[in-house]
Design goal:
Layout lengths: L7 E3 L4 E8 L5 E5 L5 E13 L1 E6 L5 E13 L10 E2 L2 E3 L2 E7 L7 E11 L9 E6 L12 E14 L10 E8 L3 E3 L1 E4 L3 E3 L4 E6 L2 E7 L3 E3 L7 E3 L2 E7 L3 E4 L6 E3 L3 E7 L2 E4 L6 E3 L2 E7 L3 E4 L2 E6 L2 E6 L3 E3 L4 E14 L4 E5 L4 E2 L2 E9 L4 E5 L11
Parallel strand pairs: 1-3, 2-4, 3-5, 4-6, 5-9, 6-10, 8-13, 9-11, 10-12, 11-13, 12-14, 12-15, 12-16, 13-17, 15-18, 16-19, 17-20, 18-21, 19-22, 20-23, 21-24, 22-25, 23-26, 24-27, 25-28, 26-31, 27-32, 28-32, 31-33, 32-34, 32-35, 33-36
Antiparallel strand pairs: 7-8, 29-30
Length: 382
């Protein structure tokens, strides 16, 4: 089906199956009627679009369920959408696939099961976020209305480029983004998730997810494009393929806020000034990296909660306020840059159990280990 403006509008209990819907990339290819009180269940099965899929609890909609399988938003440009949720000092661009409970009434329900979701291609990354799910939240990122809930979000390949100007302090995207007001029982990334632009986080959590597993590479190519960011309630995170970031200020793994029970990684590699490998600022459970944490770069700017700040490309940084139950890195913590610290535990930070396979600082004036906080001694395994 080919359109020159908006595509297919769904009303109630509709099914789209084995269909390609194409429109101008900045239009919506699939959307729903906001005048329907109960939208029932919307089924999208083997659907490909050029243009955004935007399904929302908005207007008169009080109940909606989405079941999507093998859906590919091949191309879309949502960078011009006015409606952008705000939290933690930044606005967020909508996604090629956007599911959003926008109702103030907490009794409004939006549920979903998403499997086999693909966003963009290497040649046509979506301009905006990739998969975007959200509830009704305030500007501080707190749920104050209708929630979005899903038992499963499973993605295949995701490619995005938000088109945000480098140095912008107050706008971001996410390749797969679980925003404030969203709870997803399990997120699976079974294809590569790749972002190309400035402030394009690869995987980002502002909501609640008990389990998040990535079995394919997590990669970014833009400045301040972080591999995985946590702001709210993360249970068990497993990224069983490399995190690789390429761009100034593009850190590997951040726990800015909220909580996290455990985090497991294959490896984390960052290249660019200001690209910290692992940064923890809050109490959390265990961190286990099976291979290396490696950074290449020196001092540079990076986006932190709506402000561009100067950081150094430290390998592992445990910051004030962090209390880590266990930190194990089986490989080497390695930095390549001048005047760096490879592994640091700052004052008012704590690591209760620590195991490091090795620590290397390659650079003039660089230091391997600095502990001003609380961490056990005798922790190197080689």
């Amino acid at each position: 089906m080919q359109f020159l403006a908006k595509g297919v509008r769904l009303t109630k209990d509709n099914t789209l199956r084995d269909i390609t819907i194409s429109t101008t990339d900045y239009e919506v290819a699939v959307y729903n009627d906001f005048s329907v009180d109960d939208a029932g269940t919307m089924v999208l099965d083997h659907v490909t679009t050029v243009g955004q899929i935007y399904l929302a609890a908005d207007g008169e909609v009080k109940s909606i369920r989405v079941e999507a399988n093998d859906v590919h938003v091949k191309q879309a440009d949502v960078s011009g959408r006015v409606d952008q949720p705000h939290g933690y000092g930044v606005d967020v661009l909508q996604g090629g696939l956007t599911l959003w409970n926008r109702q103030k009434d907490s009794a409004v329900t939006f549920t979903a099961t998403l499997t086999g979701i693909s966003i963009g291609t290497e040649e046509t990354p979506v301009r905006g976020s990739g998969v975007f799910v959200a509830g009704y939240a305030d500007r501080e990122g707190r749920l104050i209305g209708g929630a979005f809930t899903a038992d499963l979000i499973e993605t295949k390949a995701v490619f995005t480029d938000g088109g945000i100007a480098q140095g912008t302090p107050d706008k971001i995207t996410g390749g797969v983004f679980v925003l404030s007001g969203a709870k997803v029982d399990r997120v699976e990334n079974n294809g590569p998730t790749t972002t190309y632009g400035a402030n394009d986080m690869v995987l980002d959590l502002w909501g609640v997810t008990p389990e998040w597993v990535a079995t394919a590479p997590v990669t970014s190519y833009g400045p301040s494009a972080i591999g995985f960011v946590n702001f709210d309630a993360m249970g068990h995170l497993k990224i069983l393929a490399p995190i690789v970031t390429n761009g100034a200020g593009a850190r590997g793994f951040n726990v800015y806020d909220g909580s996290m029970e455990s985090a497991e990684f294959d490896s984390i590699t960052t290249t660019g000034d200001g690209t910290i490998g692992v940064q923890v600022s809050r109490p959390m459970g265990t961190i286990h990296v099976h291979s290396d944490v490696a950074t290449t770069g020196g001092e540079g700017t990076s986006l932190v909660k709506g402000a561009q700040m100067t950081l150094k490309a430290i390998g592992v940084s445990i910051k004030p306020g962090a209390d880590v139950e266990s930190l194990r890195i089986d490989g080497t913590v390695r930095t390549r840059g001048d005047d760096l610290v490879s592994f640091e535990v700052l004052e008012d930070a704590r690591v209760r159990d620590l195991t490091l396979g090795g620590v290397v600082a390659e650079g003039e004036g660089s230091t391997g280990i600095v502990v001003d906080g609380d961490a056990p001694n005798g922790t190197l395994t080689e």
